[in-house]
Amino acid sequence: MTEPNEQAREATSRECAIIAAQAADEKKATDIMVQEVRDLIGVTDYFVIATAANNRQVEAIVDEVEEAERTRAGVKPLHREVTKDGSWSLLDYGNFVVHVFQPDTREYYRLEALWNDAPVVDLAAEAGLSNLEYSDRIAKLLGRD
What we know:
The protein is of the alpha+beta class. Helices cover 41% and strands 19% of the residues. It has seven helices and five strands; from the N terminus they run H-E-H-E-H-E-E-E-H-H-H-H. It has a five-stranded mixed β-sheet with strand order 1-2-5-4-3. It is globular, with a radius of gyration of 15 Å. 32% of the residues are buried.
């Protein structure tokens, strides 16, 4: 039985960002990274960035992230945006934002490089993700080359 003044704990923005990274990994996303950008941009706490091979995988990853956030953290996106060609999709949760790119679009925008001073969450330690796949550019950015 639950105590009367015991309330369900809200997931932190960091926990939500990690949930998003885990969900992206479930759908075989690559180049998954979580950057803590709150001190650099002030409008959100975390960027979760992942790469998908094609339009269908972009959609599958975004759907998986939405489902995981809804069921595990109890949150829904404030906004969902998809480019016309399906090469980039964004989920804005307010305190964290999820970006899923196809490879060429990710290479073009290099979003993670814009905020290269932002601390990067260690997904192996905090999310239990140990077999993540990284392109040469992202591996070098993360110091894993």
